[in-house]
Fold this protein.
Amino acid sequence: MIPLSWYLIFSAALFSIGLFGVLARKNVIGMLMGVELMLNAVNINLLAFWSYLYAGVNGLVFVAIVFVAAAAEVAVGLALIISIYRRKRTVVPDEVDGLRG
Amino acid sequence: MSGMQIVFLVAAAITLVSAVLVVTLRRTMSSALLLVLTLLGVSVLFVLLQAQFFAVVQVLIYIGAVATLILFVVMLTRSVMDTSEPQVHKNWWLAALVSLVVFVALVVTLSSWQAFPQVQRAIPADSGENLAALGKALVDPNGFALPFEVASILLVATMIGAVYIASERKGEE
């Protein structure tokens, strides 16, 4: 029997690692991978509460919607990266400063 | 310590170590490949949570689609980043501090929850998700038909938007 706290502490750790990736990475693809880690941590949290506290269908729908949102986010994000790479030959967000006044 | 706990600890350790490598490695290709290992570890935890269906969905969507897409983009945009210089900002310690504060705050909040140790598993040990109920709830007007349709519109908009943004247009620049 695995305590619920293990799952929650694990997902907190995974979320923090992803947050570090988003904040510290120079490469925008690395930042996107950090976002994926954070979304996975959220999904573990949702499924842990579904499994331990609220064994209905609501938590599962929430997880499915998070999957859809993650897929949509990564598809549009990578399309933007390709587009920016084609014009500016860079994947570093700091070098994309066309809107700076 | 039961067998399930050992499986959990091994999977969690592998997942966390590979997640740390994903955000710290210099070569983006290596971290994209380690992202696959991390997602696989998360799907092992889904199985331990009795969510077999979502473990399969995790492998199909995250590893099959998302990680593959990331790998392709890494290969398309290779040769831009110089891997000899560090891949993190020079004030990365600030990011590490923020992440550490978030982690400690989450753990402190969790440990202040009174009912925490007594929580028992709500679903029986040998059953998974009730997929028939999930499918019915997704198309039930009194259930989640509206979020379901919104999600499908989001996916269509994503598809059109991604094709439009990434397509090469002549006579521009």
